């Protein structure tokens, strides 16, 4: 088979997928209106066919990438013949066309899973139709705007290669994770909209989509974390988060998605916050589209944006349609979404969840405002005005601290009505322990007010969560007579949702501790050293031993040898380098990091004047390892809560006497 | 006061607190003008915009880079991305010289203030159009 033929098959598969999606949308709408089961069955068939077509397209593109067919424009743009196989494979999502194809492929598989699933038969066809509208959009873009199978004539001899910054394992996981997260939110969104359209009361849609939501949230969290890690080890500026539009793009849906995960619990238990939940999931999905728009359009100048103006316009229109459509439906059907119950007490789990939601949505709004401010200011005043990182930090840091504090208090508060005195009794031990930690930190010289506040809140929440687990185990030991370890294991295994959630909370606290230390107490020095010269930073002494040149498979590197001494004792040798890739005009810096749980020593070879003189950027980043450790906790906790089987269902609904009396009124 | 009112009042207080935080952050952290080089030069010359935070996009005048490694001092002339090379803004940046500054297609973004003589940049970002997306052939 020659390239031309294969490329045509790929293009044809995409166009066919587009036509099938169009059919599935139209047939779906007619089937829903006329209750035509034969048509509805044909939509199922169309879903299978769409998934097959996107799979064919993605397989063909991978064949081209792996075999290095530079006659295909996409392959020529993002790979080269000296690129390792692994990165040829991952070049699928290095550029616009490939990553949109990946998006469409995942979406079509999700749609297929929903098509073959017979949950909530009354609203499923509508949800499927909404997913197919999304399929239609993406396949339209792939068929006519951003085509992956463009053929170059004559074919170039060599490709451009993959940007070296993207040749990093973290950059392989990051885009995939973000996409799986983005696309995953389409499923709960489609079901929520379907429930509204069908005026279908009840919270079936939440039960059906809960796993999807948590899974999407897991991938989005993973995507954000791997993005931070990549920025830290690969970009060489010593940080991991810059409030860059592209970072914010995936952070905003994470915030609203987190809010949604909590507020649906209130609906599950108490039949409340229905309108709010529909609103939240709509906003979350719209933000994923908006995030794609931001990264794809280059409308906001970001450090790392794919720029394609025309594609951006289509995305913007689609995003706005989704937003206006969702809000219109929601407002139109407010009446049927009447609340099942009222708040019974201001001090109750449901009201603390409401507060959690207000904080998360507030942070999302502030981030949105700061990100898009240049656009709106230009529209209104003609002058582009930007807000910098200080704005985001000033707004979000207090919100996040309040949010974390709530994370510690919330699990101790009962549903419906909690007793204040009992809450305070539960706090004495964690409060005491947190004070001990703070006194220790004050002694070792932590004095910045924000740092003290943040550490105090975070350690309090950490101890409160651990204490809560400890109390649960103790109760279980009393009741069952198991030993402590066995009781702990059983307690977690039998209430996986709750304790998975606690593990996630512990992860978030560890991340917050890491962020506090590394952002308030980092030290940076830029120095120019000659061979055998030393420089001291904190309690490290760094001795520059000279430069050498190294050849690796597709890289020429200039490596600096550095001996590191800590408190006068030899610690390790670090080898930061600058790598020169073929057909890349500029070198990239390979950072050298000596990490420990306490701090990272971070050294970048910034340049050199001659064989004996090199310039270094040296940083000490305290506690940064805890960001990644917290990330592992968060991922583990989510998987633990998600894992199918016993103990993953929601606990029984607790219905007490007083509330029944209230309902009767 | 029934529970519903209490909840509404409580939520209201939280929303107002967040709004207050928001406005005060906006006022205190300051905004900066995002400008092209020619707009920035216009502002400096005609509106006497000294010591105002600015974020300027442009490119480097070829051959204007002077880099003192010992002192970590980078000086260069910034010119508009499109348009005449006669519009020039001298920039001083006291930090490490980025790798791809000399790239012929490099577009740069500086943030900082004009001090009356030169533009003192606190940050310098280099964006290569070829970095992530190749130009359309």
Automatic annotation (TrEMBL), chain A:
Q: How does the protein's chain sit in the membrane according to the entry?
A: Multi-pass membrane protein
One cellular-component annotation, GO: plasma membrane
Q: Where are the transmembrane segments?
A: 12-33, 45-72, 100-120, 132-152, 172-200, 212-231, 251-268, 275-294, 314-331, 352-371, 391-415, 427-446, 452-470, 499-521, 623-643
Q: Indicate where this protein is primarily found.
A: membrane
Please report the stretch or stretches of sequence annotated as the Cytochrome c assembly protein domain.
93-297
Keyword Transit peptide on entry: no
A GO BP term here is: cytochrome complex assembly
Q: Where in the cell is it found?
A: Cell inner membrane
Q: Does the keyword Transmembrane apply?
A: yes
| Keyword annotations of the record | Cell inner membrane, Cell membrane, Cytochrome c-type biogenesis, Membrane, Transmembrane, Transmembrane helix
InterPro entries in the cross-refs: CcmF_C, Cyt_c_assembly, Cyt_c_biogenesis, Cyt_c_biogenesis_CcmF
Q: Which residues form the Cytochrome c-type biogenesis protein CcmF C-terminal domain?
A: 316-642
The Gene Ontology terms for molecular function here are: heme binding; heme transmembrane transporter activity
Organism domain of life: Bacteria
Give the protein's function: Required for the biogenesis of c-type cytochromes. Possible subunit of a heme lyase.
Family stated for the protein in its record = Belongs to the CcmF/CycK/Ccl1/NrfE/CcsA family.
Return the protein name.
Putative cytochrome c-type biogenesis protein CcmF
Its taxonomic path starts at: Bacteria, Bacillati, Bacillota, Clostridia, Thermoanaerobacterales
From TrEMBL, chain B:
- Sorted UniProt keywords: Cytochrome c-type biogenesis, Heme, Iron, Membrane, Metal-binding, Transmembrane, Transmembrane helix
Instruction: Please name the GO terms that the record assigns under molecular function.
Output: heme binding
Q: Where in the cell is it found?
A: Membrane
The residue ranges crossing the membrane are 7-27
A Pfam family that this protein carries is CcmE
A GO CC term assigned to this protein in UniProt: plasma membrane
Main location class = membrane
Does the record's keyword annotation contain Transport?
Answer: no
Protein name, UniProt field: Putative cytochrome c-type biogenesis protein CcmE
